[in-house]
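I'd like us to work through together how a protein chain folds, taking it slowly. We need material for that, and I hope you will provide a protein of your own picking. Go ahead whenever you are ready, and we will take it from there:
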Amino acid sequence: MSVIIKGEQIYEGKAKRLFNTNDPDRTIIEYKDSFTAFNGEKRAEMSGKGRLNNLISSEIFEYLSDKGVPHHFIERIDELCQLAVKVRILPLEVVVRNITTGSICKRLGVGEGIRLQQPLVELYFKDDDLGDPIVTEDHAILFGWASQEDLWAIKSVAVRVNDLLTALFNGISVVLVDFKLEFGKDMSGKLLLADEISPDTCRFWDVSTGDRLDKDRFRKDLGNVLGAYEEIWKRLSGRAK
């Protein structure tokens, strides 16, 4: 493969920047040190956060590669950047819940900490101005956000990723409470798991203590936010492979 050269910035989100490269099918993802919560209403900068999310997400995508899950990640380039397949992101966030916490408790009036009999897969329309509202599969199809075939594949991959990540994190004494996935299509139209998988997009609870090891520490002002991310990376990188 020819040497990849970083080009112009094409997108900047809350936690990442995307850049063109000299290969039209490839993009460089750069992780930022920014924290945001509540659709950007709460913000902070913490040095080292981007590095940790890059390390953790890279490790998880490599694990999923070994299990045959199709995704956009190619390789980690340095402490802040990854090389990935360029995709068109679908305007849907896919949330998989194993234990009740967060918005579902407020929305449905259910208690926190209920272990669900099976994973609950929810769809949200990606729009910060609307607060990323929950939507049905019919909404997604009728408004052209995804086809029925896309949704079947998305749910199948989401449930498989949940099984794989639950096993991975059980092995390092971490409960996978819930997580968010995003999907995109490459230049040929192939559906791929995309974005990131990190303590920004997952809820992790320590098996023994119940301590939060994710962005909830920032959301809820629990302190030691980067320490929690460091702990996830320490356990992931130190596990037997």
